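Troubleshooting: if your tokenizer reports a length mismatch, compare against these two reference records.
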Amino acid sequence: MELQAIKNRFGIIGNAQELNYALGVAVQVANTDLTVLISGESGVGKEAFSHIIHSLSARKHNPFIAVNCGAIPEGTIDSELFGHEKGSFTGAVDSRKGYFETVNGGTIFLDEIGELPLGTQARLLRVLEAGEFIRVGSSKVQKTDVRVIAATNKDLLQFTERGKFREDLYYRLSTVPIRVPSLRDRKEDIPLLFRKFAVDFAERYKTSPVQLDEDAKNLLIQYSWPGNVRELKNIAEQISVLSEDKSISQNQLRRFIPENPVNRLPMVIPSTGNHAQNDFSNEREILYKLFFDMKKDVTELKKMFLEILKNPSLAADTQEAFSRDLKELKPQEHFGGLVTAAYPSQPVV
């Protein structure tokens, strides 16, 4: 089946090279039973890829279930996935089948796979390697034939290095990796997606679809879209419902697009006069200055501490100087009118 036909069938909008590649891999692997690991930021459409893979597979007439691993409490995730026996834990008044039992013959999509507890990871590894599982509270081994598609917005390889994710499970899951690109990596698709959403919401709310002028389109493209396609869809819906004027200008669009996150780096005010060379032109220089200043402060503190160790009588002088500096700072002006009291000096051992 051609790629465009796949897009039309599943409502995939866009022509970005990264998107086409990810979609091509999904189509190629669909008719196999290989485990797939879909990675990408939140809101890029990872679950849509899992539906595509299942729908094009030999399991398409069998059950499909999507499980958000991050939304299930750690104490109940094993029961949800593998089932439990009556009386196996408090509240287990009846035995219950888990997803791997009810979806037998079909496909299970494990979203946010990185949130699985290590114990559950071991159980999942056994399913992937042997097709076996044991209900919570049971000793009976059961068989299952389920294809697993996993997804994550985390760096699982980094998780393995930190001991948060089993390395053997990572390599078992990532038999076929698929990376879904973020929206800012497919900027050329943003106007197409917005137009599609605008038409859809116009039909839903019985109104005319909103249209963007060129300046508004440029603003849409320049925005960083941390929430990806999900955020774009939400904004398209807001505009469709709240905007009486269906021709949207850049200024009108600004009311719906949140400001980009501000730079959290400290602001460095450039000196004037003979010190104009200290006008830092980029973040790297700002960081260098911060690191050098921190190193200087640490060095001075270390030197002061060593001097106090050599001569304990300096401790009292240091405390007196600190108290004097504290008074000059007028702490009551900096802490909402609360006057702070100096702590009594302690002997230096």
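Reference record two:
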Amino acid sequence: MPQPVSDTMAAGFLTVTNKGGTKAELTSVTSDLGEVTMHETVDSAMRQAERLDVPAHGQLVFKSGGTHLMFEKLKHQPKQGQTVSVELHFADSDPVTVEMPVKSATYTPKTGH
């Protein structure tokens, strides 16, 4: 996650890996930092995604300019060097909690974090 430059909004990037033999359906992401929505970039336009597939034996990459997370109504502004806890919710499995490191404000990963 790049350090937010706004007091109310931030972007999130990470890679979700599915080691299982069937696709996993990511239905939502939550965080104590604020409200989290999943977005896709299609034809240069950002749109909210209700669900995203993580292919069997594959990855779902959240990155700048593509599929990404949007954090809104931030409860505080995370600083570089801190971590942000997010919980990934799936249709057919238990939630998974991950820690996203906060990087510099200009951080733009090519393949997640």
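Descriptive notes for reference record two:
- The chain has no helices and ten strands.
- The chain has a mean pLDDT of 91.
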